[in-house]
Amino acid sequence: MLFSCLGVLILPFLICCECANILYVVPFTGKSHYIMLKPIGLELARRGHNVTVITGNKAEEDLPNYHQIMVEHKLIWDVLGIKRPNIFTMADISAEEFHDKILWSGGLAFTEVALQSPEVKQFLANNNSFDLVISEQFFQEATFALAHKYKAPLVLVTTYGNCMRHNILSRNPLQLATVLSEFLDVHDPTSFWGRLRNLYFTVYEFVWWKYWYLEKQEEFVRKYIPDLPQPVPSLYELQRDAALILINSHFSFEGPVAYLPNIVEVGGLHLTRSTSKLPTDLQKLLDDAKHGVVYVNFGSNVRSSEMPAEKKRAFLKVFSELKQTVFWKWEDDNLDIDAKNVVVRKWFPQKDILSHPNIKVFISHGGLIGTQEAIFHGVPLVGIPIYADQYNNLLQAEKLGFGKILQYRDINEDNLRKSLHEVLKDESFKQRAQEISARFKDRPLPALDTAMYWIEYVIRNKGADFIKNPAQELSWFANNMLDVYAFLLFVFIVSAYFVFIILRAVLGLFKTSNDRRQKVKKQ
Ligand SMILES: *[C@@H]1O[C@H](CO)[C@@H](O)[C@H](O)[C@H]1NC(C)=O
Ligand SMILES: *[C@@H]1O[C@H](CO)[C@@H](O)[C@H](O)[C@H]1NC(C)=O
């Protein structure tokens, strides 16, 4: 149902012709995800749409047309029923293990928590209607069935970049030679072994995901989502039919990739309209840092304080020798430092810190959100990857010349000093960071507006079926031209066979006439 335009009343400068009832499903409680997802929901509301959000993080903003349905706030370790591990131990696990132990198990447990939350249950039991369902695409596939429940087009949003499963689903070219599976770390992706590993992992992930994991999500649909119109399409079909996929990347950083018109890059959208300011104490410290500031933060999940003692000592020693000020996110009260130049806080307003011109280098775990913040503000990186897409992000930063990877296992005083001093002293890192920053911002529309444009495009065009790949109508066989190749192979084999027969006959004739001639000579 479309209703009269609130947007015209609230924000007269916005032209909003068709304000829609939008359901925005972002139940995952992870903080870094919410940093990217929150601006989408809020901006839709600011533009006059009636937005209902199923979320694990409450927004403080109080807009009359922004309704929040709260998911019980549980951390992944609680739902998995295990003690929170030291995240640094994940630096060495394989992509397969990461999917099996964390993403798939965690995803299933989280989906169940979300669908069983009292507010969500209440909401699902009511009669609502929506023109559009937008959902995060992060291992909570059962919620995609809400698009079917409300007979609305589905838009997917990912907080990471390219998604291999969705390339397969939407029939986007896979480009396995140049595009890595999102959570696979490969040291030399375009080498023979790198490409083989990528192919292997893509097949492994897809098969387990489709035939094992998605089946479990289907059970949640049957169990927790009431009043579904029959017949219910499979979750696989629902994702394949998604109208639009917004991905958190931009070719200026990730490199160019071929995308269908319904896969749109919106990387960096949380930076588009940032108006927040630094707290005065940090502002003063930054302004006063004559030699600049080294900023250290391993993100919301990884805690510096959990580092083993000898690695902690290496950091402290190297930091205490610097003339720069050091800002270090440290999560407990047990750090005894005598170095005057080290400022420790449990939390830093990161994107505002990175925007300060005195920041010299960001020592980071390479999470995508933080990496984009560094790119946006032209800050070089020393990256210590731990899990998921972090290694790939940092590999890209290293390749583009504004970052340096230091593997977690290699951290000691010498290696840390060497990497840090290289990035601090070699001017080219800063220069490259600024060049990439300019490219990252050079777009026809800011990222958040791009997201808004395409979401509203789908609303205007009633699901915009015409921007989906027509290859979806074809079988897997036909889409990959296998029938045609098989036919050509057949024609080739048959022709080769005939050529062989003819040649043999001709040679045979030649041989017998030769033999005859020799017989005649002998006589
Ligand atoms: C907006 O959404 C809320 C909550 O989902 C719903 O109760 C309300 O009727 C909607 N408003 C309009 C004008 O459709
Ligand atoms: C929802 O609507 C259906 C039919 O339109 C009605 O039978 C049902 O009682 C309604 N449920 C609620 C909770 O209002």
UniProtKB/TrEMBL annotation:
Transmembrane segments annotated in the record for this chain: 484-510
Main location: membrane
Catalytic reactions on record: glucuronate acceptor + UDP-alpha-D-glucuronate = acceptor beta-D-glucuronoside + UDP + H(+)
SUPFAM superfamilies: UDP-Glycosyltransferase/glycogen phosphorylase
Xref: InterPro entries: UDP-glycosyltransferase, UDP_glucos_trans, UDP_glycos_trans_CS
Pfam families documented for this protein: UDPGT
Protein's cellular compartments: Membrane
Enzyme class: transferase
This protein's UniProt keywords: Glycosyltransferase, Membrane, Signal, Transferase, Transmembrane, Transmembrane helix
Membrane topology per record: Single-pass membrane protein
Signal peptide: 1-19
Top-level taxon of origin: Eukaryota
Enzyme Commission code(s) on record: 2.4.1.17
Family of the protein in this entry: Belongs to the UDP-glycosyltransferase family.
Name of the protein this chain belongs to: UDP-glucuronosyltransferase
